[in-house]
Amino acid sequence: xxxxxxxxxxxxxxxxxxxxxxxxxxxxxxxxxxxxxxxxxxxxxxxxxxxxxxxxxxxxxxxxxxxxxxxxxxxxxxxxxxxxxxxxxxxxxxxxxxxxxxxxxxxxxxxxxxxxxxxxxxxxxxxxxxxxxxxxxxxxxxxxxxxxxxxxxxxxxxxxxxxxxxxxxxxxxxxxxxxxxxxxxxxxxxxxxxxxxxxxxxxxxxxxxxxxxxxxxxxxxxxxxxxxxxxxxxxxxxxxxxxxxxxxxxxxxxxxxxxxxxxxxxxxxxxxxxxxxxxxxxxxxxxxxxxxxxxxxxxxxxxxxxxxxxxxxxxxxxxxxxxxxxxxxxxxxxxxxxxxxxxxxxxxxxxxxxxxxxxxxxxxxxxxxxxxxxxxxxxxxxxxxxxxxxxxxxxxxxxxxxx
Length: 403
Ligand code: GLA
Prior knowledge:
This protein is α/β, with parallel strands linked by helices. Helix content is 27%, strand content 24%. It is built from 12 helices and 21 strands. It starts with a helix and ends with a strand.
Protein backbone atom coordinates (compact mmCIF):
# COMPACT_ATOMS: atom_id res chain seq x y z
CA UNK A 1 0.00 0.00 0.00
CA UNK A 2 2.87 2.34 0.82
CA UNK A 3 4.34 1.78 -2.62
CA UNK A 4 0.99 2.55 -4.19
CA UNK A 5 0.75 5.72 -2.14
CA UNK A 6 4.21 6.80 -3.17
CA UNK A 7 3.36 6.16 -6.79
CA UNK A 8 0.14 8.05 -6.32
CA UNK A 9 2.01 11.05 -4.95
CA UNK A 10 4.57 11.02 -7.71
CA UNK A 11 1.83 10.74 -10.29
CA UNK A 12 -0.25 13.49 -8.78
CA UNK A 13 2.72 15.82 -9.01
CA UNK A 14 3.10 14.90 -12.65
CA UNK A 15 -0.63 15.29 -13.16
CA UNK A 16 -0.95 18.85 -11.87
CA UNK A 17 -2.67 21.00 -14.52
CA UNK A 18 0.13 21.37 -17.03
CA UNK A 19 0.71 24.71 -18.64
CA UNK A 20 2.76 23.30 -21.50
CA UNK A 21 0.39 20.57 -22.65
CA UNK A 22 -0.70 20.41 -26.28
CA UNK A 23 -4.40 21.20 -26.65
CA UNK A 24 -5.96 21.55 -30.07
CA UNK A 25 -7.47 25.07 -30.01
CA UNK A 26 -10.11 24.02 -32.54
CA UNK A 27 -11.36 21.14 -30.43
CA UNK A 28 -14.42 21.84 -28.35
CA UNK A 29 -13.92 21.07 -24.65
CA UNK A 30 -16.11 17.99 -24.02
CA UNK A 31 -18.20 19.73 -21.38
CA UNK A 32 -19.29 22.40 -23.90
CA UNK A 33 -20.37 19.84 -26.50
CA UNK A 34 -24.18 20.13 -26.75
CA UNK A 35 -24.39 16.52 -27.94
CA UNK A 36 -22.92 15.21 -24.71
CA UNK A 37 -25.71 14.07 -22.41
CA UNK A 38 -25.75 12.44 -18.98
CA UNK A 39 -25.66 8.63 -19.05
CA UNK A 40 -28.76 8.54 -16.86
CA UNK A 41 -27.11 6.50 -14.08
CA UNK A 42 -26.58 7.19 -10.37
CA UNK A 43 -29.57 9.46 -9.90
CA UNK A 44 -28.89 9.03 -6.20
CA UNK A 45 -25.30 8.66 -4.88
CA UNK A 46 -23.92 5.18 -5.67
CA UNK A 47 -23.73 2.75 -2.74
CA UNK A 48 -21.57 -0.34 -2.46
CA UNK A 49 -18.24 -1.69 -1.31
CA UNK A 50 -14.67 -1.30 -2.58
CA UNK A 51 -11.67 -3.45 -1.74
CA UNK A 52 -9.02 -0.74 -1.40
CA UNK A 53 -9.35 0.77 2.08
CA UNK A 54 -9.16 -2.59 3.84
CA UNK A 55 -7.34 -4.91 1.46
CA UNK A 56 -5.18 -2.67 -0.75
CA UNK A 57 -3.32 -4.78 -3.30
CA UNK A 58 -4.08 -7.98 -1.33
CA UNK A 59 -7.36 -8.56 -3.12
CA UNK A 60 -8.48 -11.86 -4.62
CA UNK A 61 -11.64 -13.59 -5.77
CA UNK A 62 -12.39 -15.34 -2.48
CA UNK A 63 -12.39 -11.98 -0.68
CA UNK A 64 -14.80 -10.62 -3.28
CA UNK A 65 -17.12 -13.64 -3.08
CA UNK A 66 -17.19 -13.72 0.70
CA UNK A 67 -17.79 -9.96 0.78
CA UNK A 68 -20.68 -10.26 -1.68
CA UNK A 69 -22.19 -12.97 0.54
CA UNK A 70 -21.72 -10.85 3.65
CA UNK A 71 -23.28 -7.80 2.00
CA UNK A 72 -26.39 -9.91 1.45
CA UNK A 73 -26.38 -11.67 4.84
CA UNK A 74 -25.75 -8.52 6.88
CA UNK A 75 -28.68 -6.68 5.32
CA UNK A 76 -26.40 -4.21 3.56
CA UNK A 77 -27.73 -5.11 0.12
CA UNK A 78 -31.29 -4.52 1.23
CA UNK A 79 -30.19 -1.22 2.78
CA UNK A 80 -28.95 -0.11 -0.66
CA UNK A 81 -25.31 -1.23 -1.04
CA UNK A 82 -25.23 -2.58 -4.59
CA UNK A 83 -21.86 -2.12 -6.25
CA UNK A 84 -19.08 -4.57 -5.33
CA UNK A 85 -15.98 -2.89 -6.70
CA UNK A 86 -12.52 -4.41 -7.05
CA UNK A 87 -9.96 -1.63 -6.81
CA UNK A 88 -6.34 -1.72 -7.99
CA UNK A 89 -4.16 -4.80 -8.46
CA UNK A 90 -6.63 -7.29 -10.00
CA UNK A 91 -4.80 -7.11 -13.33
CA UNK A 92 -2.67 -9.62 -15.12
CA UNK A 93 -0.77 -8.72 -18.29
CA UNK A 94 -2.29 -7.76 -21.63
CA UNK A 95 -2.53 -10.71 -24.02
CA UNK A 96 -1.07 -10.82 -27.54
CA UNK A 97 -4.03 -8.84 -28.89
CA UNK A 98 -3.67 -6.24 -26.16
CA UNK A 99 -6.70 -7.42 -24.20
CA UNK A 100 -6.45 -6.91 -20.47
CA UNK A 101 -6.54 -10.08 -18.38
CA UNK A 102 -7.10 -10.75 -14.69
CA UNK A 103 -4.22 -11.92 -12.47
CA UNK A 104 -4.53 -15.71 -12.89
CA UNK A 105 -3.31 -16.43 -9.38
CA UNK A 106 -5.57 -14.02 -7.55
CA UNK A 107 -8.57 -14.48 -9.85
CA UNK A 108 -8.28 -18.06 -11.16
CA UNK A 109 -11.97 -18.26 -12.14
CA UNK A 110 -11.70 -15.08 -14.20
CA UNK A 111 -13.66 -11.86 -14.08
CA UNK A 112 -16.65 -13.09 -16.06
CA UNK A 113 -17.33 -15.85 -13.52
CA UNK A 114 -16.80 -13.47 -10.61
CA UNK A 115 -19.18 -10.92 -12.11
CA UNK A 116 -21.74 -13.68 -12.64
CA UNK A 117 -21.42 -14.67 -8.99
CA UNK A 118 -21.83 -11.09 -7.78
CA UNK A 119 -24.86 -10.66 -10.04
CA UNK A 120 -26.34 -13.93 -8.76
CA UNK A 121 -26.37 -12.35 -5.28
CA UNK A 122 -28.49 -9.48 -6.55
CA UNK A 123 -25.52 -7.10 -6.60
CA UNK A 124 -23.63 -5.17 -9.27
CA UNK A 125 -20.00 -5.56 -10.24
CA UNK A 126 -17.34 -2.87 -10.44
CA UNK A 127 -13.73 -2.69 -11.48
CA UNK A 128 -10.80 -0.26 -11.50
CA UNK A 129 -8.50 1.12 -14.16
CA UNK A 130 -6.40 4.20 -14.81
CA UNK A 131 -6.17 6.83 -17.54
CA UNK A 132 -2.38 6.52 -17.64
CA UNK A 133 0.10 3.91 -18.81
CA UNK A 134 -0.02 2.20 -15.43
CA UNK A 135 -2.38 2.13 -12.48
CA UNK A 136 -1.22 3.66 -9.20
CA UNK A 137 -0.25 0.13 -8.12
CA UNK A 138 1.84 -0.32 -11.26
CA UNK A 139 -0.55 -2.59 -13.20
CA UNK A 140 -1.44 -1.93 -16.87
CA UNK A 141 -3.45 1.27 -17.34
CA UNK A 142 -6.00 1.93 -20.09
CA UNK A 143 -4.22 4.70 -21.99
CA UNK A 144 -4.38 3.78 -25.67
CA UNK A 145 -6.72 0.84 -24.92
CA UNK A 146 -9.84 2.74 -23.90
CA UNK A 147 -12.35 1.24 -26.34
CA UNK A 148 -10.78 -2.21 -26.10
CA UNK A 149 -10.92 -2.20 -22.30
CA UNK A 150 -14.47 -0.84 -22.23
CA UNK A 151 -15.54 -3.70 -24.53
CA UNK A 152 -13.79 -6.23 -22.29
CA UNK A 153 -15.48 -4.83 -19.18
CA UNK A 154 -18.88 -4.97 -20.88
CA UNK A 155 -18.26 -8.59 -21.90
CA UNK A 156 -17.36 -9.44 -18.32
CA UNK A 157 -20.54 -7.79 -17.02
CA UNK A 158 -19.00 -4.75 -15.37
CA UNK A 159 -21.48 -2.15 -14.06
CA UNK A 160 -19.09 0.42 -12.53
CA UNK A 161 -15.63 1.66 -13.45
CA UNK A 162 -13.40 3.60 -11.08
CA UNK A 163 -10.89 5.37 -13.32
CA UNK A 164 -7.72 6.64 -11.67
CA UNK A 165 -5.13 9.23 -12.70
CA UNK A 166 -1.61 7.88 -12.07
CA UNK A 167 1.05 7.90 -14.84
CA UNK A 168 -0.97 10.23 -17.04
CA UNK A 169 1.93 12.56 -17.87
CA UNK A 170 0.61 15.65 -19.63
CA UNK A 171 -2.76 14.17 -20.62
CA UNK A 172 -5.67 16.58 -20.44
CA UNK A 173 -7.97 15.23 -17.74
CA UNK A 174 -11.25 16.38 -19.24
CA UNK A 175 -10.42 14.79 -22.59
CA UNK A 176 -9.04 11.59 -21.06
CA UNK A 177 -12.15 11.05 -18.94
CA UNK A 178 -14.47 12.00 -21.82
CA UNK A 179 -12.72 9.43 -24.01
CA UNK A 180 -13.35 6.64 -21.52
CA UNK A 181 -16.91 7.88 -20.94
CA UNK A 182 -17.53 7.61 -24.70
CA UNK A 183 -15.94 4.17 -24.83
CA UNK A 184 -18.19 2.95 -22.03
CA UNK A 185 -21.27 4.46 -23.69
CA UNK A 186 -20.33 2.78 -26.98
CA UNK A 187 -20.58 -0.67 -25.35
CA UNK A 188 -24.31 -0.18 -24.86
CA UNK A 189 -24.00 -1.40 -21.26
CA UNK A 190 -24.94 0.80 -18.31
CA UNK A 191 -21.62 1.46 -16.58
CA UNK A 192 -21.24 4.07 -13.85
CA UNK A 193 -18.03 6.10 -14.31
CA UNK A 194 -16.21 7.13 -11.13
CA UNK A 195 -13.60 9.79 -11.85
CA UNK A 196 -10.59 9.62 -9.53
CA UNK A 197 -8.13 12.44 -10.20
CA UNK A 198 -8.24 13.76 -6.61
CA UNK A 199 -9.65 17.16 -7.54
CA UNK A 200 -6.41 18.21 -9.26
CA UNK A 201 -8.20 19.42 -12.40
CA UNK A 202 -11.40 20.66 -10.74
CA UNK A 203 -13.67 18.01 -12.29
CA UNK A 204 -16.74 19.63 -10.70
CA UNK A 205 -16.36 22.30 -13.42
CA UNK A 206 -16.46 19.88 -16.38
CA UNK A 207 -17.46 16.35 -15.42
CA UNK A 208 -21.24 16.50 -14.89
CA UNK A 209 -21.93 14.91 -18.30
CA UNK A 210 -18.77 12.80 -18.31
CA UNK A 211 -18.70 10.90 -15.02
CA UNK A 212 -21.23 10.09 -12.31
CA UNK A 213 -18.96 10.98 -9.40
CA UNK A 214 -15.58 12.57 -9.01
CA UNK A 215 -13.10 12.49 -6.16
CA UNK A 216 -12.51 15.92 -4.69
CA UNK A 217 -9.46 15.18 -2.53
CA UNK A 218 -6.46 12.98 -1.89
CA UNK A 219 -6.96 9.55 -0.37
CA UNK A 220 -8.80 9.12 2.90
CA UNK A 221 -7.10 7.30 5.75
CA UNK A 222 -8.65 5.80 8.84
CA UNK A 223 -8.30 8.81 11.13
CA UNK A 224 -10.52 11.60 12.46
CA UNK A 225 -8.09 14.21 11.18
CA UNK A 226 -4.51 14.69 10.11
CA UNK A 227 -2.22 14.06 7.21
CA UNK A 228 -0.32 10.82 6.64
CA UNK A 229 1.97 11.39 3.69
CA UNK A 230 -0.53 11.79 0.86
CA UNK A 231 -3.60 10.63 2.72
CA UNK A 232 -5.82 12.86 4.82
CA UNK A 233 -8.27 12.38 7.66
CA UNK A 234 -12.03 12.69 7.72
CA UNK A 235 -12.21 16.29 8.99
CA UNK A 236 -9.61 17.41 6.42
CA UNK A 237 -11.63 15.85 3.60
CA UNK A 238 -14.86 17.38 4.89
CA UNK A 239 -13.33 20.85 4.68
CA UNK A 240 -12.29 20.25 1.06
CA UNK A 241 -15.58 18.70 -0.06
CA UNK A 242 -18.02 21.00 1.76
CA UNK A 243 -17.66 24.16 -0.37
CA UNK A 244 -18.25 22.17 -3.56
CA UNK A 245 -21.93 21.58 -2.72
CA UNK A 246 -23.32 23.64 -5.64
CA UNK A 247 -21.78 21.22 -8.18
CA UNK A 248 -23.49 18.03 -6.98
CA UNK A 249 -26.83 16.74 -8.21
CA UNK A 250 -28.62 13.65 -9.52
CA UNK A 251 -26.23 11.70 -11.75
CA UNK A 252 -23.12 13.71 -10.81
CA UNK A 253 -21.77 13.73 -7.28
CA UNK A 254 -18.81 15.06 -5.35
CA UNK A 255 -16.90 12.06 -3.97
CA UNK A 256 -15.04 12.65 -0.68
CA UNK A 257 -13.62 9.09 -1.00
CA UNK A 258 -14.71 5.76 0.38
CA UNK A 259 -15.81 5.00 3.91
CA UNK A 260 -13.42 3.89 6.65
CA UNK A 261 -16.24 2.79 8.98
CA UNK A 262 -15.21 -0.43 10.72
CA UNK A 263 -11.51 -0.37 9.84
CA UNK A 264 -10.44 0.18 13.44
CA UNK A 265 -8.70 3.56 13.47
CA UNK A 266 -11.58 5.59 14.89
CA UNK A 267 -14.14 5.25 17.69
CA UNK A 268 -17.71 4.22 16.90
CA UNK A 269 -18.80 7.77 17.67
CA UNK A 270 -16.28 9.11 15.15
CA UNK A 271 -17.42 6.55 12.60
CA UNK A 272 -21.05 7.61 13.14
CA UNK A 273 -20.03 11.23 12.52
CA UNK A 274 -18.01 10.23 9.41
CA UNK A 275 -20.98 8.28 8.03
CA UNK A 276 -23.43 11.07 8.90
CA UNK A 277 -21.31 13.75 7.21
CA UNK A 278 -21.02 11.63 4.06
CA UNK A 279 -24.83 11.29 4.05
CA UNK A 280 -25.28 15.04 4.57
CA UNK A 281 -22.89 15.69 1.66
CA UNK A 282 -24.84 13.32 -0.63
CA UNK A 283 -21.60 11.39 -1.00
CA UNK A 284 -21.31 7.97 -2.58
CA UNK A 285 -21.54 5.47 0.31
CA UNK A 286 -18.88 2.93 -0.59
CA UNK A 287 -18.03 0.78 2.41
CA UNK A 288 -14.33 0.01 2.73
CA UNK A 289 -14.20 -2.52 5.56
CA UNK A 290 -14.02 -6.31 5.84
CA UNK A 291 -17.77 -6.84 5.66
CA UNK A 292 -17.52 -10.57 6.39
CA UNK A 293 -15.72 -9.87 9.66
CA UNK A 294 -17.47 -6.72 10.86
CA UNK A 295 -18.84 -6.33 14.39
CA UNK A 296 -22.39 -5.40 15.32
CA UNK A 297 -21.58 -1.73 15.90
CA UNK A 298 -20.12 -1.40 12.40
CA UNK A 299 -23.11 -3.12 10.85
CA UNK A 300 -25.47 -0.88 12.75
CA UNK A 301 -23.72 2.23 11.43
CA UNK A 302 -23.53 1.06 7.83
CA UNK A 303 -27.17 -0.08 7.77
CA UNK A 304 -28.77 2.90 9.51
CA UNK A 305 -31.60 3.34 7.03
CA UNK A 306 -32.68 6.70 8.38
CA UNK A 307 -29.24 8.18 7.73
CA UNK A 308 -28.97 6.37 4.39
CA UNK A 309 -32.30 7.96 3.42
CA UNK A 310 -30.71 11.38 3.95
CA UNK A 311 -27.91 10.45 1.54
CA UNK A 312 -30.29 8.92 -0.99
CA UNK A 313 -32.95 11.63 -0.81
CA UNK A 314 -34.37 12.07 -4.34
CA UNK A 315 -33.97 15.85 -4.29
CA UNK A 316 -30.23 15.18 -4.61
CA UNK A 317 -29.00 18.38 -2.99
CA UNK A 318 -25.64 18.24 -1.21
CA UNK A 319 -25.99 19.52 2.32
CA UNK A 320 -23.89 22.41 3.48
CA UNK A 321 -22.35 23.88 6.57
CA UNK A 322 -24.37 26.93 7.61
CA UNK A 323 -22.57 27.81 10.84
CA UNK A 324 -19.27 27.06 12.53
CA UNK A 325 -17.57 28.38 15.65
CA UNK A 326 -14.84 26.90 17.85
CA UNK A 327 -15.16 23.38 16.51
CA UNK A 328 -18.96 23.40 16.64
CA UNK A 329 -20.84 23.21 13.35
CA UNK A 330 -24.39 23.18 11.98
CA UNK A 331 -25.08 21.43 8.67
CA UNK A 332 -28.34 21.46 6.69
CA UNK A 333 -29.52 19.30 3.79
CA UNK A 334 -32.85 20.11 2.14
CA UNK A 335 -34.96 17.02 1.53
CA UNK A 336 -37.78 16.18 -0.84
CA UNK A 337 -41.07 17.05 0.85
CA UNK A 338 -39.80 20.25 2.45
CA UNK A 339 -37.99 18.71 5.42
CA UNK A 340 -34.37 19.26 6.38
CA UNK A 341 -31.72 16.90 7.62
CA UNK A 342 -29.77 18.79 10.31
CA UNK A 343 -26.39 17.72 11.66
CA UNK A 344 -24.76 19.18 14.74
CA UNK A 345 -21.03 18.42 14.72
CA UNK A 346 -18.69 18.69 17.68
CA UNK A 347 -15.05 18.57 16.55
CA UNK A 348 -13.82 19.53 20.00
CA UNK A 349 -12.53 17.52 22.92
CA UNK A 350 -15.33 18.40 25.38
CA UNK A 351 -19.12 17.99 25.19
CA UNK A 352 -20.80 21.04 23.61
CA UNK A 353 -24.28 22.49 23.33
CA UNK A 354 -24.99 23.22 19.65
CA UNK A 355 -28.06 24.99 18.28
CA UNK A 356 -29.60 25.16 14.81
CA UNK A 357 -31.99 28.02 14.20
CA UNK A 358 -34.86 27.94 11.74
CA UNK A 359 -33.27 30.88 10.00
CA UNK A 360 -30.25 28.68 9.24
CA UNK A 361 -32.66 26.06 7.90
CA UNK A 362 -34.45 28.57 5.67
CA UNK A 363 -37.69 28.42 7.67
CA UNK A 364 -39.71 31.22 9.28
CA UNK A 365 -38.99 31.34 13.03
CA UNK A 366 -42.65 30.72 13.87
CA UNK A 367 -42.82 27.41 12.01
CA UNK A 368 -43.67 24.38 14.12
CA UNK A 369 -41.93 21.15 13.07
CA UNK A 370 -41.54 17.52 14.02
CA UNK A 371 -38.03 16.48 14.99
CA UNK A 372 -36.71 12.94 14.75
CA UNK A 373 -33.33 11.70 15.97
CA UNK A 374 -31.90 9.53 13.18
CA UNK A 375 -29.34 7.71 15.36
CA UNK A 376 -31.54 7.17 18.42
CA UNK A 377 -34.43 6.29 16.08
CA UNK A 378 -36.96 8.23 18.08
CA UNK A 379 -39.20 11.24 17.79
CA UNK A 380 -38.21 14.24 19.90
CA UNK A 381 -40.61 16.94 21.12
CA UNK A 382 -41.94 19.25 18.39
CA UNK A 383 -39.90 22.40 17.99
CA UNK A 384 -40.44 26.00 16.93
CA UNK A 385 -37.66 28.35 15.89
CA UNK A 386 -34.69 26.27 16.97
CA UNK A 387 -33.35 22.86 17.82
CA UNK A 388 -30.42 22.29 20.16
CA UNK A 389 -28.62 19.28 21.57
CA UNK A 390 -25.63 18.44 23.68
CA UNK A 391 -23.09 16.74 21.44
CA UNK A 392 -20.29 14.49 22.68
CA UNK A 393 -16.69 15.18 21.57
CA UNK A 394 -15.86 13.98 18.04
CA UNK A 395 -19.52 13.21 17.45
CA UNK A 396 -22.55 14.27 15.47
CA UNK A 397 -26.26 14.45 16.26
CA UNK A 398 -28.47 14.08 13.19
CA UNK A 399 -32.16 14.92 13.16
CA UNK A 400 -34.81 15.29 10.52
CA UNK A 401 -36.88 18.44 10.88
CA UNK A 402 -40.26 18.18 9.16
CA UNK A 403 -42.70 21.13 9.21
C1 GLA B 1 -5.20 6.00 -5.80
C2 GLA B 1 -6.68 6.19 -5.51
C3 GLA B 1 -7.09 5.22 -4.41
C4 GLA B 1 -6.81 3.81 -4.85
C5 GLA B 1 -5.34 3.66 -5.21
C6 GLA B 1 -5.04 2.31 -5.84
O1 GLA B 1 -4.40 6.36 -4.70
O2 GLA B 1 -6.94 7.51 -5.11
O3 GLA B 1 -8.47 5.37 -4.11
O4 GLA B 1 -7.61 3.48 -5.96
O5 GLA B 1 -4.93 4.66 -6.14
O6 GLA B 1 -3.69 2.17 -6.16
